[in-house]
Amino acid sequence: MPRPRPFARVRFARGRAVTLWCEDAIAGLPLRLPRQGVDVVVTSPPYNRKVAYSTYSDDRPRSEYLAWIGQLRDAVDTVLSPAGSFFLNVGASPSDPWLPMDVAREVGRTFVLQNVLHWVKSIAIDRSAAGRSSGLDHDLGLGHYRPVGSDRYVHGAHEYVYHFSRRGDVPLDRLAIGVPYQDKSNVARWRGAGGGLRCRGNTWFLPYPTIRYRARDRPHPATFPPELPEWCLRLHGRGRVRLAVDPFVGIGSSAVAAVRLNVPFVGFDVDPDYLAVAVERVRAERTGRRSPVTRRPAGRTRRAGSTSASASG
Ligand SMILES: C[S@@+](CC[C@H](N)C(=O)[O-])C[C@H]1O[C@@H](n2cnc3c(N)ncnc32)[C@H](O)[C@@H]1O
Q1: In this model, does residue 265 exceed pLDDT 70?
Q2: Are strands 179-180 and 38-43 parallel, antiparallel or unpaired?
Q3: Mapping DSSP to helix (H, G, I), strand (E, B) and coil, where does residue 48 land?
Q4: Positive or negative, the Cα torsion across 207, 9, 22, 71?
Q5: Buried b (16+ CB within 10 A) or exposed e, 236-256
Q6: So what's the architecture of 8-286 in CATH?
Q7: N or C: which end of the chain has fewer CB within 10 A?
Q8: Which of 49, 65, 270 has most ligand 1 atoms within 8 Å of CB, for mutation?
Q9: What is the full DSSP assignment across 225-250?
Q10: 38, pLDDT greater than 70
Q11: How many helices (H) and strands (E) does the chain have?
Q12: How far is the CA of 280 from the centre of ligand 1 (A)?
């Protein structure tokens, strides 16, 4: 029988590559990857929220969907290394706030929930709360804002990133995504400990990059920005990632993150059109030729009421 071939393999450094498989991830993970050979799994599965993917149907009975998440958990269990991290991004809809927690419960039957991170897509900061030292002279609304068409709900500005591990004791490189101390008078005191940086905590403000043409610049209904998987990889400890995997790679945001960090990477998706875009983004990242779908968020500052954006998952 001929050896199965990946959809694409893009080499980006000596001995390092992004390998993309066009197949069902649950079947593919144990087939294509070394047993317990993956240090970080970082992914955003479909959330069963009727998102219009080209190939996958995102509208199943809840019990069937959760059973499928259980199969994903078991597939990850076969490939995750003993000290590995499994970062799982899931978002809710206003009318279904339990969904991410139901998913986390299902995965938690095997793995320990080590951290709960909040991916904040937009935030309002009042000048008075920011304090005088911030230099702000007006209230800020940052990130993309999609108004909710209901008087029952506030708009959803965040998603969860559940960090699972086998025993809940994976040491993290918190300062790899650290933030400078606000109070400069303390910097000297803290410099020895963290080079003037403190832990970022579990609220990660990462707005979508501003795009001009949706179909050209982000041709997928539910992406996360590459910075999200990038921060997950950094937090796990860049030097301890021999292989990173995204079972639902979509248009390759996590693959782009892996190239940025020089980490070997394997991704899966059932949709060849998404994978073709992923290849294009990885190539652009490798050559430093940033396409609109790969560039980092510009300035990261937008006023409230700015353009809407896709939800992940
Ligand atoms: C939430 S999206 C991931 C988007 C990705 N994080 C990005 O930024 O581009 C989920 C993806 O899972 C894919 N998918 C659905 N079922 C799958 C399966 N059984 N195996 C692999 N991929 C699947 C869909 O085609 C979709 O692209």
Answers
A1: yes
A2: unpaired
A3: coil
A4: negative
A5: bbeebbebbbbbbbbbbbbbb
A6: 3-Layer(aba) Sandwich (3.40)
A7: N
A8: 270
A9: -THHHHHHHHHH-GGG-S-EEETT-T
A10: yes
A11: 9, 13
A12: 17
Strands (DSSP E) contained in 137-262 are 140-143, 158-165, 179-180, 197-198, 203-205, 244-246
Among 224, 266, 269, 310, say which to mutate for ligand 1: greatest number of ligand atoms within 8 Å of CB: 269
- What is the distance in A from the centroid of ligand 1 to the CA of 91? 14
Cα separations in angstroms, 26 against 140, 224, 285: 43, 21, 28
Burial of 310 (0-12, 13-18, 19+ CB in 10 A): middle
Residue 271 beta carbon below 6 angstroms from any ligand 1 atom: yes
Q: What single letter denotes the amino acid at residue 212?
A: R
Give the integer Cα–Cα distance in Å for 103 and 295: 31
pLDDT tens per residue across span 204-232: 999 988 766 676 777 888 899 999 999 99
Spatial separation of the C-alpha atoms in residues 242 and 19, rounded to whole Å:
14
Do 244 and 79 contact (CB within 8 A), yes or no?
Answer: no
Q: Are 38 and 80 in contact (CB under 8 A)?
A: yes
Per-domain boundaries in the chain: 8-286
Assigned token pair, 90 = 């899931």
Condensed to tens digits (0 to 9), the pLDDT of residues 150-205 reads 899 998 999 999 999 999 999 999 999 999 987 666 655 655 566 789 999 999 99
Dig out the tokens for 260 from the structure.
Answer: 């940025």
The pTM (predicted TM-score) of the whole model is 0.90
Tokens encoding 285: 């990242």
Whole-angstrom Cα distance, residue 240 to residue 222?
29
Per residue in 68-105, is it b (16+ CB within 10 Å) or e — as a string?
bbeebbebbbebbbebbbbbbbbbbeeeeeebbebbbe
**What residue type is 251 in one-letter code?**
I
Q: How far is ligand 1, taken at its centre, from the CA of residue 114, in Å?
A: 24
